[in-house]
Give the backbone structure.
Amino acid sequence: MTTYVVGDIQGCFDPFQCLLERVNFDPAKDVIWSVGDLINRGPANLETLRWFFAHRDRAVVVLGNHDLHLMAVAAGARKMSKSDNFGDILQAPDRDSLLAWLRQQPLAHHDQGVTLVHAGIPPMWSIKKTLRYAKEVETVLQGPNYKGFFDAMYGNEPVVWSDKLEGMTRLRVITNYLTRMRYCTKKGKLDLINKGPKPKTDALKGKKVAPWFSHEERRAAADTIIFGHWASLEGVTDSPNAIALDTGCVWGNKMTMLDLDSRTLHRCRCK
């Protein structure tokens, strides 16, 4: 059995199939992990989601911001934006089964000495705390009051973690760390404005920000973390234990898959 980890697919189904063929993926014995953002912006969102649903017994998917957005739109908490193109999922006859399955997926996964998240882990959280806080969000998402979560999910506040946070403000900042974060201060204050490989604006007004994985004193620095979300990194980080797998397939670059056992990277070009 081999475990493979794929970067952001975002509905780019053909490059994903190219990678599966390249590694001779065998669903009878192999396992596929996804860093999230299965859908949105690419040409085959429904096909992608159906593939993972069909192979759900051999797949681990952590939720990304686009996955959450799809579910929020489906729940009536948000309208589709001009850049959203997952209408094929919303109109599909099997949409309820697909979305019910998606809603049961975690925000963080830990196995084989590796932690899988969509965006990252803030400097002040250990792996143990990350999994515990992720579980708080997952419990609400998987419960009967998930629509209330989606109603309150959007927003950049609060910008920093506190153990004293309660209710939706607490769940929102946990969600933002795990599915939207790129830059933050060493104490975890979020800069959700800058998206490039280097910050272009002083979003936090003089506060020193860095990529979440670059802070030397972060609690999980010794742990292997696999993440996606940040296409402009092009798979490059300054931490050997932070493995970035979003290489911008949906923007015409490449899709990346990691053989977790050998740590070999495989790539297919996206058209």
